[in-house]
Amino acid sequence: MRRAGGVGTAARFGATLLGGVALFAWFESPARSQTSQGGNSLPPVTVDAPSQQSVRRAPTKRSDARVRSTSRRTTVPAAPQAETVAVQSQPSQPGVVPAFAGGQVAQGARLGMLGNTNTMKSPFNVTSYTDKFIRDQQAATGADALILDPSVRSSHPTGGVVDSFNIRGFPINEGNNGEFAFEGLYGIAPSYRIFTDYVERIEVLKGPSAALSGIAPNGGVGGVINVVPKRAGEDLTRLTASYSSAARFGGHWDVAKRYGDSKEWGVRASGSLRGGDTPIDRQSETTGVGALALDYQGERYRSWLYFLAQTDRFTAPSRPFLMTAGLPVPKAPDGRLNVMQPWEWSRINDQSALWRNEYDLTDQVTLFADVGGSHTNVERFFGLPTITSASGNTTSTPQFFGLSIDRYTYDAGVRARFDTGFVRHAVTFQASVYHDALYRRLTNGSQVTSNIYNPTVAPTQFANEIPGRPRLSDSELTGLSIADTMSVLDERVLLTLGVRRQGVEGNNYGTLTTSYDKTATTPVVGLVVRPRDNVSLYANYIEGLSRGEVAPQGTSNFGEVLAPYIAKQYEAGIKVDFGRVATTFSAFEISKASGERLANRFSATAETQVRGLEFNVYGELMPDVRVLGGVSLLDGTLTKTAIAANVGNTPIGVPNVQANIGAEWDLPWVRGLTLNGAVIYTGRQFVDADNKQPIPDWTRLDLGARYTTAINGRKTIFRANVQNVTGENYWSSVASFGTFFLGAPRTYLLSMTVDM
């Protein structure tokens, strides 16, 4: 049956007002203040680390400050630049694109192999969130940092062990291989969670991107989340102390330094240690992060070397719920309640490294090569609770899960700029290889019963670990790709054409060993027309690629590997830069096939389609007021399925409305004090394809304040945030396989940051 409701529920979001004010003022030798956003209430904010590239003063028309499409010889700035300085970034170089007015969003982002591209010249909807925005939100993870993106929803609970998402209604990072890109490459970032200690930008490219970024390791097609790591710019020593309810304390450091006669050598080290009880009952978490970035910026040769290590340890980690078929989903309990046992636990350790290199053969031709990899070790002992009654009873069987994941990636290619008559070309050719191998051991404990409204403590069980981890699977993804961005009329018209030939090889080991060796070709076409400097009309056709599934036991073709699934996106939109405020409006359609059982045979006969309208806004409404948010209206449909009654139903986990609005206000009568607030709304979702088990829509209010001053001549920022101010109890989201999650309880965040 067709779902009820519709996009009209967006009116509920518009009716929700930012109310209540939580603020504090702490004065000690008040600083002479001015806002970095052009007002007069905040002292200057430290400029984001500039990329290792040449810089220039931005022209009067900011839209002309563009990100170049190829590399050039570079010099490193020895002094911090004012906000009016724009980086003349090159796509071949993983530079930091400068911030837009307001400092929360950058003026461009990475488009896979196309590299860094100015937002107004991109044929895609892409948003890049800055380090300043991340710090002001006190966002500890990637999920926290993306809370105000209307196209993105976290599909894992607060206090959980994974950052997974839905982007445009399709899942991202729901498997064990990790789908976060790091400097545009898969296989480097930690597999399960991104901590923001080492993040300079978090970029979200919305929609499939196989031709630009290659096949995602878990087959995600909704978009790409790319981590731009911190690297040395201006000299910096920044220390932060933090607290979050109930009793979790932490310390963070961030140090950068450049050396050499021309500042050609750079070092940046960052990290943190946090630990203590969370606001969720019986739960504690300890995290440790360390990151080191080294770089050399020569006249023609440039090199970057990144090292990363993190550990994440939970007691009683939050888990999603399964729902027994045929029962209604019960009302959400208090978000502080936890059915997980105090003796259940999780330990995840990640180590990563990446070495990037570029060499300019000429001012027009650049060679590049990258190599890196990561290792993840997982040990955990917990269950997956299933709700078995309308009164909230649950059953769960703890399981020891030992998993090792080894990944490596390398690529090489060339970028060139040249003209053919009046047409300018920016051409990229790339060859890439990604490899992963998984090793796993499982053992089960005894069943535990509880209740979501009245959790009980069961007798302690212990993990029964068996030595050794047999190989579970391995895969290798290879790609050859070429793309050309052609521009005419001083980049008033830009046309991007590209294609990637993708090879997918895999082996599954177990009861039946299966092998997989498939290839697919995915194109991309993107068009940008700029009738005015501040207006861009854009359209694209691009495909996504997911490895085919293996027919499960019990089917007549058990062990057969299906061909790769191809997702297709059509998108068109308009971007307008009003000078201090920018907006994007887009319309898209994505369709993707998937496998299902039909007459005891497993085949790719199912198809999901999501159509959507997106509106994004960011920037400064006035010198002391900043805004960030938007709305996403989704129309998800099961267009094909083996169960005829389900055709036309809403896919699992796809809401009809996602809307966010966040605002900041620098109080004119209290110098240095900024208030902020955000409203987040998500429409109704279903946990089953029959559309008989919905979770209701929900709205969350967050409030906060920060005070910027100088103490003994050192810039100091105090931040206070309250998430879920009203203490709403809600089911927050649904993963693609029907598990659903309890929303975060009221949470308090405090921190103090000092620039030494």
Description:
With 756 residues, the protein is mainly β. Helices cover 3% and strands 52% of the residues. Strand 35 and strand 36 (694-695) form a beta hairpin. The protein is globular and about 70 Å long.
Descriptors:
756 residues
Percent in helix = under 10%
Cα radius of gyration in angstroms: 25 Å
Major sheet summary line: 22 strands, antiparallel, barrel
Number of helices: 4
Class by SSE composition = mainly beta
* Tertiary shape: globular
Quantity of strands, as a count: 41
| Percent of sequence in beta strands | over 45%
Report how far the terminal alpha carbons are from each other: 62 Å
The parts where pLDDT drops under 50 for at least 5 residues are 1-94
Question: Averaged pLDDT, please?
Answer: 86
Outline of this structure?
By secondary structure, this protein is mostly beta strands.
Secondary structure topology:
Elements (H helix, E strand, L loop, with lengths): L9 H6 L39 E3 L27 E3 L20 E3 L5 E3 L7 E5 H6 L5 H4 L6 E3 L10 E3 L2 E3 L7 E3 L16 E8 L3 H4 L9 E7 L6 E9 L2 E13 L5 E13 L6 E14 L3 E15 L6 E2 L21 E16 L4 E18 L3 E2 L5 E4 L2 E22 L2 E22 L3 E4 L19 E18 L4 E16 L5 E19 L2 E12 L18 E13 L3 E18 L2 E22 L2 E16 L16 E10 L6 E10 L2 E2 L7 E2 L2 E14 L2 E10 L7 E4 L5 E3 L4 E9 L1
Parallel strand pairs: 9-11, 17-20
Antiparallel strand pairs: 1-2, 3-4, 5-10, 6-7, 7-8, 10-11, 12-13, 12-41, 13-14, 14-15, 15-16, 16-18, 18-19, 19-22, 20-21, 21-24, 22-23, 23-25, 25-26, 26-27, 27-28, 28-29, 29-30, 30-31, 31-32, 32-33, 33-34, 34-37, 35-36, 37-38, 38-41, 39-40
